[in-house]
Amino acid sequence: MTERRISAVPGPENPEADTRLFFARPWVFIRGVPSMKFLPPEGPPEVAFAGRSNVGKSSLINGIVSQKGLARTSNTPGRTQELNYFVPDGFTGEGDDLPPIALVDMPGYGYAKAPKEQVDAWTKLVFDYLRGRATLKRVFVLIDARHGIKSNDQDVMALLDKAAVSYQIVLTKADKISALALPKLEAATRELIRKRPAAFPEIIATSSEKGEGLDRVQAVIADFAREG
């Protein structure tokens, strides 16, 4: 069993090649968590994806694992209302047979047209998870490159700072702005997070449609899998 776990984790000898192999294997959905009592037991490290509704979380996750249908995408903001867990295929999650890492697609925040009680319920789930999950190693905070950081994003970053949870800004849909505008946006974003204590300084610009920047997100996740 131990041999199986080691072979599933990217190694240090050739990290780029091992990372590609790690994400080339099938990934599966294992659990939707509508409330904290349904969280799986803490074990392997977790990396979560947070962002405003319709920012492209599901598309980014699908792009990272090269599986179009793994995380459900929707044109309807606010559709994802659970914490959705994804792991490499072949692990039971029981005993010693734990996955090397879990990806967590979090409910989108900031969607005003859903019923208030619905918004309050999934917002509380997100915030409770961020505050109380010891195995959570990093949160990728996704920002639509066309719009930049909004007040809801800053609220989430303030919570992450307070909880001392490491987070990293990932710009999505970077192909939708000009090549000249992107460096300016990255510089402005770096300035906005410069004094935030839990913010990781490196910003990753991505395009799920064109596959740009996904390898950089994969590398971060693979590092946590190695450490775990």
TrEMBL record:
UniProt keywords (A-Z) are:
Cell cycle, Cell division, GTP-binding, Magnesium, Metal-binding, Nucleotide-binding, Septation
Q: Name one GO cellular component term.
A: cytosol
GO terms, biological process:
division septum assembly
Needed co-factor(s): Mg(2+)
- Entry-linked PROSITE patterns: G_ENGB (PS51706)
UniProt cross-references to CDD domains, sorted A to Z: YihA_EngB
UniProt keyword Ribonucleoprotein, yes or no: no
**Sequence ranges assigned to domain EngB-type G in this UniProt record:** 43-227
Spell out the family assignment given in the record's similarity comment. Answer: Belongs to the TRAFAC class TrmE-Era-EngA-EngB-Septin-like GTPase superfamily. EngB GTPase family.
- PANTHER family named in the record: ENGB-TYPE G DOMAIN-CONTAINING PROTEIN, MSS1/TRME-RELATED GTP-BINDING PROTEIN
Q: Which HAMAP family match?
A: GTPase_EngB
> In its UniProt entry, what is this protein called?
Probable GTP-binding protein EngB
State the organism named in the record: Aureimonas pseudogalii
Taxonomy, top ranks, is:
Bacteria, Pseudomonadati, Pseudomonadota, Alphaproteobacteria, Hyphomicrobiales
